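Structure representation:
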Amino acid sequence: MSDRARWGTTLLAPLLITAMAAGGVAAGWVVIGPTGPVFAAVTQGFLLAWAALGFPHRCEIPDWGWLRVRRWEPRLYAGVGVELFGTVLDLIGWNRVVTAERGFDGTRRGLGILDQHTRRSEIGHSAGMVISVGLAIAAMVWGSWVGALWLVGLAMPVHLYPAWLQRLVRARIQALQQRIAMR
């Protein structure tokens, strides 16, 4: 397969997934209405699927400045309970699923692969959070403060905390990479 054809198929799947998620959210808005927990749960389901499937697994994310974890961030995340959130994900078995998908082999080379996975996951969840806030604003304009609160309230454990958890994992990766570089 030529590079151009490969690029086209690589781009087509995320676009199709994005269109399906957007269509699902739009249909939910029309059929359910943005006024309560059902629409918020359906929306977060679509956005979570989109975050998980919409970003190509082979996509290399550059070292954008905002993706670098600052030294003060791990303390902030610990303070707002992100580590506890990670423990809950361990208890319910979610982290086993994610660990299997990441394929981290514990090697130095594997650190780069793990770093890229956290970047893709953070971007997907951050986009889901931004979309949720946008939909919440639209719900407020529509006249549903309750619907807006449900959208943002459910987006926090589905998108905000997972994005912060990725940053916490990446802080550990960055610290380990610095120690390796100093040897």
About this structure: The mean pLDDT is 88. Residues 145-182 form the longest helix (38 residues).
